[in-house]
Amino acid sequence: MAFLVFLLPWRLAFRGIRFLTRYTFFQVSSAASASGLMERYGFARPYPVRLFALHRLVDMADFFLTMKVGRSWLDRNVLMSGADALDKLSAKNIFFVTFHYGQGFWALKYLRDKGLPVAWLHAPPPVRPALGEIFIGWLGRRRIRQVARLCGASAIPVGGSVASMRERLCRDRLPVMVMPDAPLQPGQSSLPVTLFGREARLPAGALRMAAREAVPVIVYSISVNPVDGKRHMRFEGPFTEPTAESLAQRLCDHLQSAIEKDPTAWHVWPWVEGFFAKTSTAGTCESSVTA
Q: Which residues lie below 8 Å from residue 165, measured CB to CB, with a gap of 6+?
């Protein structure tokens, strides 16, 4: 992956990555289960395994690509919708929301260049990973450092994170970013939403804080075009909602709209049933930067 990205122009590297998805070895392990769940929830598409794998591989490639190229590449290769609102902001204490959808590295750089150094809420990898997960843990820590570099702000680890975010938003008047599309863990507080026409739930903590403090919210999504390798980033907001429940639903509506455009870009399909379970027993969703 790094070989392709560092040695070739992106348009050729992307073609190489897309070609690799033909082979089972390069199809991420969760792609087959994701394909079945897309179909079950009414989002069947041609070549779902290859496209799901492509989005994951491009997300991995962006880790290296953001080390190689900069703003001029972004300007040529990322199509913006709704970004004009960022130039009209009167304050920087924005509660940014995105999802485990598409590829988020470039959004972080774009926001930093706009004078919005977001502090990203994340789940850190284990300090002492199992023997078979040492490399994954090492790569996870490298990704977190790369995210902090692109953001221009240190990440906020979970665990006391709501208080840290409130302090940054309300005292320091600086932006934060969360990714609420993580299936619930046992005992975790939640908010009711409708997703795919079904009753579902989203984690509550950060959303309740944002609604209570009435901070402006901007939600965005970004994903790669599987034909040419260019990206489309869509912003919605800023807005506020009177309650945490209405905020959660508005964010869920944005997520569903993105999924309807390209369901294969949502990395959370293998854990999707955790959103609908009365008591979550789903496995932990792997945290990735699709911020």
A: 119, 121, 156, 176, 178, 206, 209
Residue by residue, DSSP assigns 53-73 as: HHHHHHHHHHHHHHHH--HHH
pLDDT of residue 284: 43
Instruction: Convert the pLDDT of each residue in 19-51 to its tens digit.
Output: 999 998 888 788 999 999 999 999 999 999 999
Sign of CA dihedral 228, 229, 230, 234: positive
The Cα-based distances of 90 to 94, 102, 115 in angstroms read: 10, 29, 12
- What is the chain's alpha carbon radius of gyration, rounded to the nearest angstrom? 18
Condensed to tens digits (0 to 9), the pLDDT of residues 113-159 reads 999 999 988 776 666 666 566 666 767 788 888 988 999 998 888 77
Buried b vs exposed e over 47-74: b needs ≥16 C-beta within 10 Å? ebbbbbbbbbbbbbbbbbbbeeeeeeeb
CA–CA gap between residue 92 and residue 105 (Å, rounded): 20
E runs forming strands in 82-161: 95-97, 119-122, 156-157
Give the mean model confidence (pLDDT) for residues 232-254.
97
Percentage above 90 pLDDT, the chain: 74
Neighbours of 288 (CB within 10 A): 19
CA dist 159 and 177 (Å) reads: 15
286 has pLDDT over 60: no
Instruction: Output the CA torsion sign for 134, 139, 140, 144.
Output: positive
The backbone torsions φ and ψ at residue 214, rounded to the nearest 5 degrees and listed phi first, read 55, 40
pLDDT the model gives residue 210: 96
Element (H, E) at 280: none
Q: Is the dihedral of CA 30, 35, 40, 43 positive or negative?
A: positive
Q: Are 99 and 290 in contact (CB under 8 A)?
A: yes
